[in-house]
Amino acid sequence: KMAAAAGGAGSAAALWSEVNRCGQNGDFARALKSVNKILQISKDDVTALHCKVVCLIQNGNFKEALSVINTHTKVLTSDVIAFEKAYCEYRLNRIENALKTIQSASQQTDKLKELYGQVLYRLERYDDCLAAYRDLIRNSQDEYEEERKTNLSAVVAAQSTWEKVMPEDLGLREATYELCYNSACALIGQGKLNEAMKKLQKAEELCRQSLSEDSDVTEEDIEAELAIIHGQMAYIMQLQGRTEDALQLYNQIIKLKPTDVGLLAVIANNIITINKDQNVFDSKKKVKLTNAEGVEHKLSKKQLQAIEFNKALLAMYTNQADQCRKLSASLQSQSPEHLLPVLIQAAQLCREKQHAKAVGLLQDFADQHPASAAEIKLTMAQLKIAQGSVTKACMILRSIEELQHKPGMVSALVTMYSHEEDIDSAIEVFTQAIQWYQQFQARTNYGCCVFQPKSPVHLSLIREAANFKLKHGRKKEAISDLEELWKQNPKDVHTLAQLISAYSLVDPEKAKVLSKHLPSSDTMSLKVDVDALENSHGATYVRKKAGKLTGDNQQKEQGQGEVKKKKKKKKGKLPKNYDPKVTPDPERWLPMRERSYYRGRKKGKKKDQVGKGTQGSTTAGSSELDASRTASSPPTSPRPGSAAAVSATSNVIPPRHQKPAGAPATKKKQQQKKKKGAKGGW
What we know:
One of its GO terms (molecular function) is ribosome binding. 65% of the residues lie in helices and 0% in strands. By secondary structure, it is mainly alpha-helical.
């Protein structure tokens, strides 16, 4: 037995030396085999069990390592194995369990504090996380100081982005691309997009420099590392409205096929938001990237929530009503106080033409969540306006007490009431808003007896109310508002003029008294250089420069005054062969059919005698068709040079005023027939 024990001890020592050698070389798979042989010799060896857990963790077998820990709880106590157990739970995404394990440890080592900071970050407890990393940086001095500073800057960036906390200046020297990237994220949270873009460009430059120093790193590796920086650049472009540039950069990142499922999910979600209700087929392809395994552990709660909202909206745009209702109901159960799930459900009901049901759904939510009642009621009013129920929409808007006095709300209500021709309700809206400001001023100036000027918003409302009443003929009601405005500013001539105009219909004597306060015409005259104004660029009237007048002409002009120039009347144009000696036809302005001598067209006569044949040919009866040779036809027009013959005959009618003859009509018909024949010939 003693010989056997000695042999076992010798083999165990050899195995331990093997474990030590493999551990130093990083060959944990081989070290695990040696540890298992040791455990066959001594199954409850604490050191061997601890080494086995470490080897399993190094090989990525976190479930098996945790199983070993839970199986040997009597041997592996929390003091011995607390860090390894918490780390396995952290890597298995059991974050709450990891936190409990860390907090239950009797001694908080530096390793546990490091892990504690990581756990707090994953739980989005950023204030506690910030305090933990500050303590670590203050009390640690090793080669991991740069990594701790990077984590600290990541916490500050998360606070700025998700909690809208103004980040404090940590005084970190941005010597690495990780620190530059985190600083850019913090700037995005503050809305400083241009500064954030410059930081990202600097981070890209530092990343290329640091990675290019390694000869084993390829260009593809560098682009893969830059993917997250480029993704954030594209996000800034999207926020700036440069959607085309952002979309192009997003698609370039997707083509690289990065291994980070969280990055792919965020980019796919952002592309879906750019597409909106357009390019739905592309959005349905991109949404698959948001469903990849492990995405829920890579993103924050708000990121995951935004992705789920967009899935519900995409289902609505693709007419998947059941899917939309299912997703929105799930979101509402997860966040009962959130507004978006209810709005999505209401939008889906409106697409199904169930407006009344949508309004009822919104009303129920407003009753249950008074904090969100204002936004809900605004949506309800919009739905009522879409249905044409403007009066009901006004009632809903007036029920929002915190917005009743706002100038925008007052303007909207007055416009809507005016559209419905309900002037009394519109005036009532003005009155309530003015009273609210009067009460507010009374509360703020409590105990003050001196004259207090009204706020600009208050005065603006009074002026708008007065103008509205004057516009709709309510001058009696406008007087009190105008008097209040004039009291606030007695030098306001425009208000005084309006007040006098209003009193002129109600109390003329009062209008006369007030008119004495108007400034004189001398004080009202404007000092304007008329010559300079007329000669200015763009003037519609250009003043002609007059020459110097002599003394006689000046006296003459002073005596006669300005004489209006008579415009010369242009002579009308006369016909070329107009004869002034011939009396024009008195019926020349009447249509031909209305003249006394009109006999109508002669149809059907001599139809058979119309010549047929080629153009220019003559027939035997052509002389008979010549209407100028008939006895009944009037004399032909005189040729130029025969004026003596025309003047010798007093009854001859000039060519422009002759009575119509049948010959021209016949000639026109012949021309039309010849044209038809010509078309056929060609």
